[in-house]
Amino acid sequence: MFKKIFKNMSQDNSEKVEKEITHEQIVNDDTTNTADAATEAGIGSAEELTEEEKLREDLAAEKDKFLRLFAEFENYKKRTSKERIDLFKTANQDVLQSLLPVLDDFDRALVQIAKSEDDVLFKGVELIHNKLKDTLVSKGLEQVEIKAGDAFNADFAEAITSIPAPTDKLKGKIVDVIEKGYKLGDKIIRFPKVVLGN
């Protein structure tokens, strides 16, 4: 009888244990499944974030490329417009340079005619000289302002010779201007030729 009772109790306990084990397995399985689901959802959202971040990075890179390209294009426009303006300023440089000897001849002629007593001739030649000079100035030609007594600057004048200075004040300075210099805009197209005192 004790055996029967013991056997019944063993069966009840084993059933109870089995039920508990089964209940624990179910709970554990649910927890595992939930954790797996959460992990999968986490991975999925992480992938979505990664794709979103990747798209943001791509967008930022494209935006950066666009801004750089736009800046380069603006620089190109500024550079070409500046080059075009410079070209217009100096387009007639060759023509103006070829007219400079004519202007020099007019200057010399005026000096010689002023020595004569013929005022009508002087005024006529002076009128033509001024008209030519005004036309050249309207095209951008300017005379380089340099005169005897100025300090010599190799950036603005060309020394062709040096002579003993007539006075101590002219030592190392310009004694005489042999040929006038001219510039077109900021560019010197013919340097003045000068004589230095030593």
How would you describe the overall organization of this protein?
This protein has helices at residues 2-90, 93-115, 119-138; strands at residues 141-143, 158-163, 174-179, 182-184, 187-190, 193-197. The protein is of the alpha+beta class and 198 residues long. The chain has three domains: 15-91; 92-139; 142-198, Nucleotide Exchange Factor Grpe, Chain A, domain 2 (Roll), CATH 2.30.22. The strands form two sheets. A three-stranded antiparallel sheet has the order 1-4-5. The protein has a three-stranded mixed sheet with strand order 2-6-3, with no helix packed on it. α2 (93-115) packs antiparallel against α3. The radius of gyration is 50 Å and the shape is elongated.
Mind sketching the topology for me?
Blueprint: H1 2-90, H2 93-115, H3 119-138, E1 141-143, E2 158-163, E3 174-179, E4 182-184, E5 187-190, E6 193-197
Parallel strand pairs: 2-6
Antiparallel strand pairs: 1-4, 3-6, 4-5
Subcellular location: Cytoplasm
Protein name: Protein GrpE
Biased composition (Low complexity): 28-39
Average pLDDT, rounded to a whole number, is 80
Q: Tell me about the largest β-sheet.
A: 3 strands, antiparallel
Order of helices and strands: HHHEEEEEE
Query: In whole angstroms, how far apart are the ends?
Result: 148 Å
Number of domains: 3
Strand percentage, roughly?
5-15%
Number of helices: 3
Rg, alpha carbons = 50 Å
Overall body shape: elongated
Structural class designation: alpha+beta
Kindly report the spatial arrangement of strands forming the biggest sheet: 1-4-5
Oligomer: single chain
Low-confidence stretches: 30-35, 37-44
Question: Considering DSSP H and I runs of 4 or more, what fraction of the residues is helical?
Answer: 55-70%
Q: In total, how many beta strands? A: 6
